[in-house]
Amino acid sequence: MLLPLLTVIAAFAVLVWSADVFVAGAASIAENLGLSPVIIGLTIVSLGTSAPEILVSLTAALSGSGSLAVGNAVGSNIANLGLVLGLTLLIAPISVHPGCLRIEVPTLLLVTAGAGILIFDLVLGRADAILMLAALVFILVQMIRSQSKDTDTFEHVEEDELPHLSPARAWLAFVVGLLLLVGSSKLLVWGASEIAMQLGVPELVIGLTIVAVGTSLPELAATVASALRGHSEIAMGNVIGSNLFNLLAVMAIPGLVAPEVLPSEFLLRDYGAMSVATLALAAMVYINSRRDESEPRASRLGRPSGFLFCVGYALYYYGLFVAH
Predict the structure, then answer these.
(1) Can you say whether the dihedral through the CA atoms of 199, 203, 209, 214 is positive or negative?
(2) Which pick of 31, 106, 207, 264 has the fewest CB atoms within 10 Å?
(3) Domain ranges of the chain
(4) Is 90 exceeded by the pLDDT of residue 113?
(5) What is the pTM assigned to this prediction?
(6) Rounded Cα–Cα distance for residues 21 and 49 (Å)
(7) How many CB atoms lie within 10 A of CB 196?
(8) Beta carbons of 178 and 222 less than 8 angstroms apart
């Protein structure tokens, strides 16, 4: 038990440090390319921190466990909203700015509804997967185009809040931080799984907790680091972007490999829980935007919202454990 325990401690330390390096590189890349931090969060950061989910999904699909891949995508989205966003809000409030209110939040709602319609027959086929991937490409292109036309959205970001790294140092920090994020998260999952098995915890519980949370560790580390550094645009953009990638890319992978028949309870219980969490996020964002008198079009989420997300996340997993 000593080696897994030391691995968990060391991996956690590396995870925290690499997240800070990763966010600094991403913010500098945004500055050097003339892009807003939220676009970096929605594209490069989200794709990078979704790497564990993508790897798990591809491996599961190729080994004939497509339902595990689909469950990983939806389970990671639930973890992103309930655990990642919930814990981040408990640590530091996040400002949701006008561009996110107009584009990103409605887009996530539409994608959640659209993907639900595609798998409503409980079959994820190649046509469904191709439509998902095409939608992802279209959404990313439209977001980048809209950002280039809206130059006033992010004027509130102070110049001295952003790290000023040269292009070479920024990309080096980004790549090194990403590699350490993914590697340390895998080591953390391995150590935790070894400890759980040695303590006699059932494999189902390990899969529903350690593995699901483990693939969301990069999002958790990067989002918390972004919020603590004052880059709330990256924090919220990372959560929304990761959920978009999970629904349109990670969940599409098993459909590309082979048609996947989903369990009957998946749509109502798991996809339903994710949809409710997504609707809750949208409701909180819009309700808080109306209450902000200093900047009516902006929204600020704080500890009460974080507490609700964490409680909802705990209740979902309690329901899973009771059902099994």
Answers:
(1) positive
(2) 264
(3) 36-150+200-323
(4) yes
(5) 0.75
(6) 13
(7) 17
(8) no
